[in-house]
Specification:
Number of helices: 8
Helix content: 10-25%
Strand content: 35-45%
Radius of gyration: 24 Å
Distance between the termini: 39 Å
Structural class: alpha+beta
Length: 496
């Protein structure tokens, strides 16, 4: 597919509808010999799981396994994600599972496996796909529907799962890799951070999420998935085949132990423990051997008898000796309730590290936000020793609580006037757990001026959609800091 490596931002209006041609006997909705089960409330959950929609309420599926297969060629990855689950109750039910995918994933294939039967899906406009799914569901047919509610949130619905039945849904997508400072990285989200939903609740709801739709997030019920914190039966396995095109000096996983084997120029990656809990995003990084000259390479593949080629050129890794212009740096830090625990500690460490790297000619300020917004200084001040010491005491006092009212903090940071003698930059430190991304992108676009906006994603599952796009609109970069041991390395790169 020659156009498949483009960024497909228009996919939000599409869905993949898969309608089985297998006619079933009308499901018996009587709950014969159904044992009492504890009801699961969607608002009690915090990371991904399949829920079965019973007459008595939601119930967590007894088993959900996820298998990830990745094939990387240069800057492009093709992924196959298989999810298997089982209905161990006595009712015919509908399964609902909202799951994260990388924010730049372009889903182009869906298969549903029921025993030995394999059913291929097809891409349709969202409204048409949903209508076909509902018709098949009412007719008692096997049907599955995958819908995209954000560029990084997908929802699978599977109709008419019989008692004891096992179903596997396979999704394939293409993804561009991230390349920065001589390092490639690929991140796969394994969990979701609950999003803060601002606005007044609206009557009715579109989805099964824990939040009502609101005046500021009109699809909130679709992007607040019913999920659980952790389950021993909720595991993921990984197999990756990486064709980097050049020898590598390192291939690592930041948060999960892996085994790496080099075979004929390819690097084969598997999880050392076989399976891992789905409680932290998975990230692979690899770094080519340094070169003082550009490195061209070509990747080839034959599909349907036709050759497809991808050319990639790696830039040289020469250091820059360009003079550094004095900066006016505003640090904005999220102190909302979702930042509790290790996230707020990572944020404090990141701020302290950045403050220590300021030069005497720089200016700076610190803004924190949760339900309210507060600035340390009325305006940017000189990076003197006294001011930095005062700022460090302020950072040490930061605690996580309240809501994530991000817009006032963005507007405050962007409201400063441009200065010809200093380069204005904003470093925005957050987990991005909000549902009103489009509103925030509009604020950045309208008020940015000559400022540069850099985003730092904090925690085990930051909102990659907000991080990437806010940095792109802000003409900056994004950085993930998901563990305390990597604060120094990543913040040093960002400040440099």
């Amino acid at each position: 597919m020659t156009s498949s490596i483009q960024r497909w931002e228009g996919w939000a209006g599409l869905a993949i509808g898969m309608i089985a041609i297998i006619a079933l006997i009308q499901p018996n909705t009587a709950a014969a010999n159904l044992e009492p089960v504890p009801e699961v409330a969607p608002d009690q959950m915090q990371s991904g799981s399949l829920l079965l929609r019973m007459r008595s309420g939601y119930r967590t599926a007894s088993r959900l396994n996820t298998e990830i297969q990745l094939k990387v060629s240069g800057l492009v990855a093709r992924a196959t994600v298989s999810q298997t689950f089982q209905n161990d109750g006595a009712e015919w039910v509908e399964g609902v599972y909202v799951f994260p995918l990388p924010e730049d994933a372009a889903v182009d294939r869906l298969r549903m496996r029921i025993g030995e039967r394999v059913i291929e899906g097809e891409i349709r406009e969202k409204t048409q796909a949903k209508k076909a799914y509902e018709q098949a569901k009412r007719a008692g047919k096997k049907a599955s529907l995958v819908q995209q509610h954000r560029t990084n949130i997908f929802r699978t619905s599977v109709a008419n799962i019989g008692p004891g039945e096992v179903i596997t849904v396979e999704i394939e997508y293409l993804q561009n890799l991230h390349y920065d400072d001589g390092t490639f990285s690929l991140r796969f989200p394994l969990t979701t951070t609950p999003r803060y939903i601002p606005g007044t609740p609206l009557p009715g709801r579109q989805g099964s999420g824990w939040s009502a739709d609101t005046t500021r997030v009109r699809d909130a019920s679709l992007i607040t998935p019913p999920v659980i914190t952790r389950s021993k039966d909720h595991k993921v396995t990984l197999h990756a085949e990486i064709n980097a095109g050049v020898p590598l000096v390192a291939l690592t996983s930041r948060y999960h132990p892996i085994d790496v084997n080099a075979v004929n120029g390819y690097y084969l990656v598997n999880l050392s423990n076989g399976q891992i809990p789905m409680d932290h995003d998975l990230e692979l990084t690899w770094r080519p051997v340094r070169s003082d000259a550009p490195q061209p390479m070509i990747f080839s593949e034959t599909l349907g008898g036709r050759p497809h080629l991808l050319m990639m050129i790696l830039p040289p890794t020469a250091a820059s000796d360009a003079p550094v212009m004095p900066r006016d740096l505003t640090f904005v830090v999220d102190t909302s309730g979702s930042m509790k625990g290790t996230s707020i500690e990572q944020a404090r460490q990141s701020l302290n590290f950045a403050l220590d790297r300021l030069h005497g000619a720089d200016r700076f300020n610190v803004i924190q936000f949760n339900s309210t917004t507060h600035a340390l200084f009325h305006r940017s001040v000189a990076a003197s020793r006294d001011n930095i010491t005062h700022a460090k005491r302020y950072v040490a006092s930061l605690n996580a609580s309240g809501g994530t009212e991000m817009r006032p903090a963005l507007e405050m940071a962007l409201s400063g006037s441009d200065n010809e003698t200093h380069f204005r930059q904003i470093v925005f430190i957050t987990d991005g757990s909000v549902g009103n991304e489009d509103e925030l992108f509009t604020v950045i676009n309208n008020q940015l001026g000559n400022t540069r906006l850099f985003t730092v994603g904090i925690g085990s599952a930051p909102n990659g959609l907000f991080m990437r796009k806010a940095a792109a609109i802000g003409r900056g970069t994004f950085t993930y800091v998901s563990a305390q041991h990597e604060v120094k390395d990543k913040m040093q790169r960002l400040i440099r």
